[in-house]
Amino acid sequence: MFFEFNLFILLLFMFCVARLIFINRKLVIFLVLMGLLFGGRFFSVNQLLSMRQKIPDSSDISLNIKIEPEQLMVEERYISGEGEVLTENGTVPVRFSSYEEDIVDHFNQHPLSEVESISVSGDLATIDGPMNFHVFDYQDYMAKRGIFQEFEIKSMNTRQKVLSINARITNFIYRLKEPLRNHDNLWVQLNNRVLFRMDNKSLDTTMDLMSSWGIIHLFSISGMQINWMRRKGNFILRRLGLTVEVSHWMIEGILLIYGFITYFPIGILRALLSQYLSRLTQHFDLPFSRIDQIAVIGLILLWINPSYLWSLGYQLSFGLTIAIRLFMNDYPNFYELNAFKQQSLISILCLLLVWPVFMNIHHTWFPLQLVVSILFAHFLTDILLIGFIITTVLIFLKLPGINYLFETLSVVLESITLLSSDYNLVSDLSWTTGEITLVQLLILLTCGLVYLYRINQSPVSVIAYVLTIYTALIFLPPLINPQAKITVLYVGQGDAMLIQTPHSYDTWLIDTGGKMNWNDEDNPIDLEESQRYLIPSLKALGVNRLTGVIITHPDIDHMGNLEGLAQEMPIENIYINQFTFDDSTFNSILKRITTMQPNLQVNLIPTEKRVTLIPNRLAVFTQDPSKIYQQESLSNSTSLVTDVTYYNKTILSLGDITVSDERRLLSYFESISPLILKLGHHGSDTSTSEELLDALEPKLSIISAGENNQYGHPHDEVIERLNEKALPYLSTHEFGAIQIHISRTEIKVNYVR
Predict the structure, then answer these.
(1) By CB neighbour count within 10 A (0-12 exposed, 13-18 middle, 19+ buried), where does 9 fall?
(2) Which residues of 101-122 are buried (b: 16+ CB within 10 A; e: fewer)?
(3) Euclidean distance between the first and final Cα of the chain, in Å?
(4) Is 530 exposed, middle or buried (0-12, 13-18, 19+ CB in 10 A)?
(5) Spatial distance between the Cα atoms of 512 and 564, rounded to a whole number of angstroms
(6) Which residues pair with 498 in a beta bridge?
(7) Tens-place pLDDT, residues 75-113
(8) Can you tell me whether residue 738 is helix, strand or coil?
(9) For 475, which DSSP code?
(10) Contact yes or no for 365/355 (Cβ under 8 A)
C-alpha cells in the first residue's frame, strides 16, 4: 500500500491534529468531519495509485509521452526524465530514458523548449528495487511520488506541441527563465539552483560539498530565502519612503511570483502560506497561535496533495519549523539575545533533529557540520543571497560586461570548490554509521527534544547527554556485536564479498567488482561504476576503512572498482598473487592508488601455499601457473581461493577457477569442509563439477552474477546440477546481496529481495 505505517510521519500528523483539537472544544465535531474527509481523500489517492501499479509491463510498444522542458535531462550519451502517458486508466506518470544515439543527437540538436507530446516506441518495465542492503530505495522513492514504471525509448516517431492551459503556463515559466539558462558558468548555475531549483549536472560536486557541510537544507528545506527576502525587501522599501502596508503588499506580490516561478517547493510554500495565514489570523482575530497556524497549513497541504506525506522536504520543513517555534517560545528572553547567539542556538537544534534523519538516508555523520552551519548561517547567508539577487537582476537587465563578472566569480567559486574538496575537514572527520535502526533513530531524535526543553536550564548536562548518546549509538555497536557478518554484495556482473569481524571495526573485502569501459580504449575501466553499487553498499553496512582487500585475479569484473574504492576510504593492505602483480592494468591502477594512499601495503601471496591472513579465520591459496594447462586462462585458474571460518562454520569462495582446477585442488578443498560454497566463475558451466559437489557436500551454494548479464550466468547446466544434488542455492542476480550472520549458536542467511 502507498500509505504504509511510518512512525515519524504518524507522530507529526498526530501533533498537527492535536494542536487543533486543543484550540477550542467546540471544534471537535468539525475536526471529526475533517478527519473523515482526510480519510476519504487518502483512500481515493491510494486507489488511484494502486490502479497505476496494475498497468502490465510490455516490450516493443508505442506510447505518447507528455514531457515538460525542465523534466528532460539531455546528457552526452543518454536522455532521461519524467513524463505522463495517456492510458485507459487516465494520465499516468512514468520515468523514461534512452541510450539510442540517434535520439540523443536529435534532442541535442533540437532541444525541448515547450511542453510536447512525443510518440515513441520501446519497453515498459517496473522500476527496480535496491540490490544491496540498506541502500537508497529508488523504487520506493518513485512509488511515493506515484511513479511505478519506467520506459526505455528505442525509437521516436513524432513530436507535437501540447496546447492545454497547464502546458501554456509551464511554457510561460520556462521562457521566463530562459535568460538564466543562457549562462553556463558555475556561478550562475549555482544561482539558478539555489534560487530557482534549476538542476545542472556540472553542479554535482559543488552541491555534494554544500550537502556535506550541512548548509544545503537552509535553502531547500527551510525556505529561508523567503523570510530573508521579506525582511530585506521591506527594509529597503520603507527606506525609500513607502508605508508599511504598501511595502508589505509589494513584497508579498513579488514573493508570490517567485514561488510561482519555482513551482512552489515545500519550504517556499510553507513560508509563504505562514505569512498569509498569520495576516488572516490577525485580521479576523482567529484563535490560532503561530504553531497552530503551521499545523493548519500542514494539514491543508496534505489535503491538496497527500503524497507530501512522504516528502522529506515536507517532513523536515514542518518538523523543524514547529521545533524552532517551540524553542523560541520556551527559551526565556530569547529575543533579547544577540543575533549570533539566537542563530547558533537554532542551528544546533536543527542539526540535532536533522542529523538522525540524514544518517538514516546517507549512513554518514558529519560532526563538523555544527560549526560550519553556524558560521555560514550567521556570516555568509546575507552575502550569498545578496550576490544571487544581484546576479539575477543583472542577467535580466542584460547589462554589458556581466559575462566577464560572472566568469570571474565562477573561477573564484571553482577554486574554492577544488580547495575545499582537497581539504574538506568536514568530510575527512565524518563517520560512516551504516544502517540506523528505528530504535536508534528515535533515541537520537530524543537528543533534539532534550535540547529543545532543557538547554536553557542545564546546558552542561544537556551537552553531556547528547555526547553520551551519540557515542553509544554511533561508535559502540560494532564493538559489542558478537556476530561475524559476511555479505556477498551485488556489484552487477562481478564479484565482491565483504567480511565484518565480531567485536571490531576490522573489515575485509574479497574483490571489488568492476565494469569495462567499452567507449574509451585508453581507459578500459569505468571509473564511475564503483559509485553505482560498491561504495553505497559499503557505507550502508557501516564500513569506514578496509583492513585488507584481496584481489583474486586481475579481471576487470573483480578489480575494476579498486581505484574508486581507494578514493573513498582508507585501505591498509592489498593481497594479490604473482599473476595479478605482473598484470599491466593492475599496475596502472596500483600506481594511482598508492599516490592517493602512500601507506598502503601490497602483499604478494606465494603459490601452492595456504596463507593465513586472520589466524583461524581467513586464509587464501593460489595455484602454481606452471601446473595449469596452456589452453586454460591463467588469470582465472590462478584465482586466489579464499576460505572464511567463524565459530567452526566455513565459507569457501572459488574465484573464477575452472573444472580442471577444481579437480587438481579437490584434496585441498576436502580438508576445509565448507558449510557454504560460493561457486566459481559466477555460475559458469566451466566451473562447479559434480566431483566438487559430491566431495564437499555443502549445505548452501551462492552465486555472484549480474541481472540480465550478457554471459547468461548462472548457466542452466550448473543450476540443473545443483537441483540434482538437492543443493539449495542463492544467486545475486535474483535475490540481490546475500548476507550470512554467524554466531556461536546459529547461522542465519538474509537476502535483499
Answers:
(1) middle
(2) eebbebbeeeebebbbbbebeb
(3) 18
(4) buried
(5) 10
(6) 487, 509
(7) 888 899 999 987 766 678 899 999 999 999 999 999 999
(8) strand
(9) I
(10) yes
| Paired residues of 516 in beta bridges | 525
Strands (E), 69-195: 72-74, 79-87, 90-98, 116-126, 149-161
Buried b or exposed e, range 292-327, using 16+ CB within 10 angstroms: bbbbbbbbebbeeebbbbbbbbbbbbbbbbbbbbbb
* Rounded Cα distance, 597 and 282, in Å: 63
- Kindly report the average pLDDT of the chain as a whole number: 88
Q: Distance from CA of residue 188 to its chain's centroid? A: 26
Beta-carbon contacts of 65 under 8 Å, excluding residues fewer than 6 positions away, are: 83, 84, 85, 94, 96, 117, 118, 120, 151
Q: Read off the C-alpha cell for 525.
A: 575501466
Q: Is the dihedral of CA 59, 60, 66, 70 positive or negative?
A: positive
The CA distances from residue 700 to 175, 619, 662, 678, 684, in Å, are: 61, 20, 18, 9, 17
Helix (H) or strand (E) holding 563: helix 562-568
CA 224-227-232 angle, to 5 degrees, is 120
Residue-wise pLDDT tens digits, 39-49: 777 777 776 67
Nearest to 576 by CA among 544, 609, 558, 552: 552
- Identity of the amino acid at 698: P
CB neighbourhood size of 23 (10 A): 16
Helices (H), 455-514: 459-470, 477-480
Query: For the residues 323-339, what does the mean pLDDT come to?
Result: 88
From 279-293, 438-452, 729-743, the region with the lowest mean pLDDT: 279-293
pLDDT tens digits, residue range 461-482? 999 999 999 999 999 999 999 9
Report residue 679 as a C-alpha cell.
561457486
d(CA 405, CA 456): 47
- Give CA angle at 469 (748, 210), nearest 5°: 90
Q: Which H helix or E strand runs over 432?
A: strand 431-432
DSSP structure class, residue 473: I
DSSP code at position 154: E
Reply yes or no on whether the pLDDT at 36 is more than 80: no
Please give the Cα distance from 206 to 119 (Å, whole number).
37
Cell of 613: 591472513
What is the grid cell recorded at 469?
A: 548518546
Rg (alpha carbons) of the chain, rounded to whole number: 29
Q: Helix (H, G, I), strand (E, B), or coil: what is residue 164?
A: coil
Please check whether residue 698 is in contact with residue 677, taking contact to mean a CB–CB distance below 8 angstroms: yes
The answer to whether 119 and 156 are in contact (CB under 8 A) is: yes
The C-alpha atoms of residue 342 and residue 331 are separated, in whole angstroms, by: 10
Alpha-helical regions (H) of 114-243:
138-143, 165-176, 178-181, 186-196, 204-213, 216-220, 224-239
Tell me the whole-structure pTM to 2 decimals: 0.89
Rounded CA-CA distance 436/663 in Å is: 45
Helix (H, G, I), strand (E, B) or coil at 635: helix
Residue 159, strand partner residues:
118
Q: Mean pLDDT over residues 148-163, rounded?
A: 92
CA distance 171 to 69: 8
Please give the helix or strand (H or E) that residue 417 lies within, else none. helix 402-422
Distances (CA, A) of 543 to 154, 556, 738: 40, 23, 17
The top-scoring range by mean pLDDT among 7-21, 368-382, 591-605 is 591-605
Alpha-carbon span 496 to 506, nearest angstrom: 17
CB 561 within 8 A of CB 534: yes
